[in-house]
Every structure is written in structure tokens, then in C-alpha cells.
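>> received
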Amino acid sequence: MFEHGITSVRLHDPETGTLPPTRYSAQARENIADPPIFEDDEGPAGRAFQSQEPIVIDDLPGATGVDYGPVESGMFLPLGEYGVLGIGSTAADAFEEGDAALVELLAITAVSAFDRLERETEMRRVQQALDQLDEKIFLLDENGALTFVTEPLATFLGRESDELRGSSLSDLVPAGEAATYEAALKRVRTSSTRSRETVETELRVGDGDVRPVEFELSATAAESGELAIAGVAHEISELAATRSHLEAERDRFKAIADTTFDLLFRFDLDGRFTYVSSACERILGYTPAEMVGEPFVEYTTTESGSKATAAFESVLDGGDIEDVELDVLTADGEIVTLEVNGTPAIEDGDVVGVHGVARDITERKETLRELQIKDRAIDEAQAGITLADATEPDEPLVYVNQGFEEITGYDASSATGRNCRFLQGEQTDPSAVATLREHIDAYEPVSVELINYRNDGTPFWNHVRITPVRDGTGAVTHLLGIQDDVTQQKRWEQLFEVLNRVLRHNLRNDLGVVSGLGGLLAARQHENSVELGQTIEEKADELLDLGEKARDLEAIAGRDTEPERIDVDSVLADLVTSYRDEYPEVTFDVSVRTDRALCAGGEIEEAVSELIENAAKHNTSAEPRVAIDVRDEGEWIVLSVEDNGPGINDMEANVISKGEEKALEHGSGLGLWLINWVVTRYGGSFQIRQRAPSDAGTQATARLPGLTEDQSVEDVAKRPTILFW
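>> returned
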């Protein structure tokens, strides 16, 4: 070059930031065996590349410190971003200023060639890429004529590529869409080359069908400098169908939203309504137009305002709210309760507001309040109320109220899941149970009175009423049970019955005797009138004593049940001292083997007194003895009184132990009835029997609740039991 045979081209490597020797002339290879690689800012080549100015060096080895062999001077010319052209000479000061200008001109030409080569290479790559893409790409000249189309677009249109080139794309747009398409072209022509325009329109294809498409158009410049328009066509048949479906769904949703009883809403980030369904008119008395744009807190009560704001902020933080109850003011100033559920409204990943649904639960709240009142009434009712599942085998209890717990001593956890027969026991009448089962199996209401047993084993009289509960179809789903503790009532009935029978029987018998004896006296038919008079006097005393016992029993029975802590030592000490004085011939042995007190009423002293007096008074043994023993037996205190007298007859024992009073077995021992009444009214039991055949005498046993020092009367006191158990 310019008679200099030593030339080189160093093309820039942007990845390594170097200027490696790319092309060396033959003479250059002869003189420089191992050409160096320069950084793109190193040496004269780097300076020329960075400054984009020619650099001439007259003394190349001296200026660079690089051994270039025989090369003495050099000239380095930038080739734009492509690299550097180097020219060397074996003579010093070989290059003149004119040489540099001329070579620079040549360098500019080389750069232009590089640019053209790069464009051509890029165009070939683009063409190859376009041939591989399944995209409908086209180019329009400034008049809207097609200058290039890809095969996919030609196939879509049902035409050959050559046939399409030179034709106007507007000719393929239906007349009804032409104005929209032309307006888009005009906007592209007048916009910057970087802007993009999107337009939906339609195209006629080869078979005459019309298909929806979306054009992406952008302005570009052709090599000639003229305006060109690049475009991509997207078939949107599926999108159009989907959009049509979504529009139909939107209309359907709007219709649902307008007819649903729930209020649908949407807030912006400031808490203002952007949408409210028409249910607001029915619920609040406002139209949607009145509410849109207004803050939601304008409609809440003061008490609910802070709650509503906290819920709103919670949703803006990305959370959901569920079943938040808010009191809201209507247009008439009334208060309704809304149950609100809400979630964040998200667009492009950002929370832009809140949308949700509000349900008017005012009536439900009122109904629930009434139900809660009824539930409390049922729970707190003195009667026991149960509910059994009639659809499950053996009809297990699924609910019991507090009344049931108090009557039976079973809490809900131990009662539910079981058939109610767990209350039955030894003295439960099988015929009453059979009556219950018969009516339950027939799904008929039934009412019976029977003996049931509490959790502590004590029996009580239970008035049971069972009623089937049916659903809307008439099928029985549950059995409603009501239990009333009628022990007191049954006790009074039995007491009145025994008083009536005993008094009637004894009055009739004894007065009959008195009448007969009086007749003998009047007729002077008996040789010993004194004996007759004594007999009459004895019968009169017996009748008076019987009347007194009846009055005592009735008086004690009429007292209120008032359990208290009774010191058994003190009671026995006073009574035994008194009876030792009254019956000096009787030996009294007392053994108290408990530290606990009795949980009973004050009348228990009268009952114990009656026990001791009976044992002493009727003891005809030569050496009469009465043994009193008090001991612990679990939660009970057992008080036993034994004597060595003639013993109680079977009739009296059966009356007290079994409650048997047949026509010929009327007991006259009302004192024993008094004992039984007092003991059982405090939850205890009383038994009297003949001692073992080898031991003469009677044994009477009373069981009553025991009370330790750290127990309260309320904790230990028991409900009355049946009279005989």
C-alpha cells in the first residue's frame, strides 16, 4: 500500500477488549514473525482505536519499545468500531502528511465496506430467521404497498408471496374496517420510528372468508431513506371468541350481581367505592351511583368504623378477610349488620384495591339472638332435656342440658354418645321400660314414671316424656326427652298413703277392740272389769301414741331440706347420756370410727334418737344391750344400731326395707318411717333387718353423706332419693 508492503489489520474483539492481528501481508509476516496482541487502549494501535484519529510514528521501536524487526516507522489508522489498519516501513520518517490523509480516506472507505458487509450479513441472518419463524410479518412502503411478506402470512391469506408484493394491504381489509386500518397507518406515518401502533381489524383470505387479526405496526427507514412500515399480523379468532365469551360472562355476571341478595363491591386504594351492585338499594336504600366515589367509612357506624378500616388495611397488605361483621347505616338511618368477605384486587402484580361481598345478616343475628336466649333457657331449665339421634343405632344422646346434669350427676361428656338406659338400675320397673321402648319404636309420644339412678348410685323417681322430632319430609330424626325429678312428689304420695293406711287400719282394729271390751263391760259379762279397763286404756294410749307419731312424721316431712355439717360425736354423746338415764337397765356401747361430719339436716338428731329409743324400749332381753357403731364407707358414713332384743318381725322389716304394704301387712312403726324419711331426704338409705339366726335382735343401718373439714356442704349435699332402697 503506497509502495509499502508491510500492512496489517487488527479487528477489535469486544469480549476480550483486545486488538489481535487479524490479517498480515506477506512482507509483514516476513519481518514480524510474532506480531503482538494489544489491549484496545494499548500502544499506538490502541490510541488510534480509542481516539479514532490516525497516528504516525517515525521511530517505531523507540516510541513503543517493541521489537518490530527491521520496521522503523509506522502509521495506524482507525477503522471505526471494527479495528485498526497498520502500515509499516523499514525506513525511518517514511510517511508524509499527505500519505496519512490519503490512507485515512481509504480507511473511511474500508469502514463503509465493513458497514455494508455487516448489514448484508445481518439481512441474511434476518431473512434466515424470518424463514424459520411461524410469524406473519410484512413490510409496507410509505404508500401502504406490500414490499415483503413471510410465507406464514402468504399461507394465511391463501395467496403466493410474489402475488402479494406490490399490492396494497388495504385491498384485503373489508370496507367496514378500512377507516380503522387507515387511521392506524396514518398514526404510524406521523409518529417517531420507535413508536408502535396496535390495531384490531379483519382480513379477507383466499376463500373469501373474513378473519379477525391484530396488526402491530411500527415505522422504520429503508436504506433509501424513505419511510417504511414493518408489521406483524396475529390471527385472533380464538381471542375474539374468548372475548365474546367473556363479554357474555360479564353480562351474565352483571345480571347475577344485580339480582343476588348479596352486595358486591370494589374499593380503590383510598377506600372509595369504584363499583357497587344494585343490591345496595334493597339493603341500604342507596343507588350504586350515589355510593360510587364515596369512602366506605361514610356508611359505617362509629363503633364499626375503626373495625372496617383495620380490615381494609389488612387486605391492602395482601391478606383476606372473612366473616367480618360491620354495622352499617341505611339511607333511613337504620342500622343493618353486614357480614363482609374481601380479597385484594390485583392488577399486573400490584394491589390496586379491594373487592368482596357483603351479606345482610341483620335478621340472622336477631334470630341467632333469640335462639341463644332459647338455648340459655333450655340449658338453665330445671327439667332435664335431652336429644337423641333417632337415625343412629341405639339412639345415642347427642345433647343434654344443665338440668339433666344436675338431676343425674352425669355431665354432658359422659352422657352423650350413649343410650339413656344407663340411668336404669335394680329397682327400675321393666314394664315402664317396655312402655318406653314400645312407643319409641312406633315413633309415638310417651310419658312414664320410673326409678332411675344417679351417677353416685342413688335412686330417684324420674318422670320421662319422649317426643319424636321430624324433619321437613316427615322422617323422625331425633327424640326429644324431658326428665323431671319427681322424687319429692312420689315420697309425699307414699307418705300420705302409708299414714292413711296405718291410721285407718289401726284405728279400725283398736277401736274395734275397745268397742268390744266396752260392750263386755256394759253387759257385765266379764269377771274382771279391772283387766278390761286396763286393756281399753292400753289401746287408747297406743292410738294416742300413733297419732303423735303421725303428727311428728308429718311435721318433719314438711320442713325444708337444709343440709348442714352435723358432728356425729356430739349428737351421740347427748342422746346416749339421756337414754342411759331413761333406760338404766340397758347397756349402751358406742364406737365412732370416723373424723368426718354428717351432711344432713338438724332433724337427723330426731331420727337417730328414734333409732336408739326403739332399740332400748322394745328390748326384753334379760341383759339388754344396744351397740351403736359409726364408720366410714367410701363417700358415706354408716351409722349402725344393734340390739339383742326379740327382733323386728318380717312385716315391719319389709315395710321399711322394701316399701311393701299389702292389705294384710300394714306396719305400725311410724317411728321407723320417720327415720327412713329423714335419711333418704338427704340422699342416704335406711335398712332394718333381723340379726343372724344365731344372734337375737335387730340391726338398723343408716347411710348418709360424709363431710371432711375441707369440703363444703354445697359440694357434698345430695338430692333426695326414693324412700326404699
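>> Residues 133-241 form a domain with the Beta-Lactamase fold (CATH 3.30.450.20).
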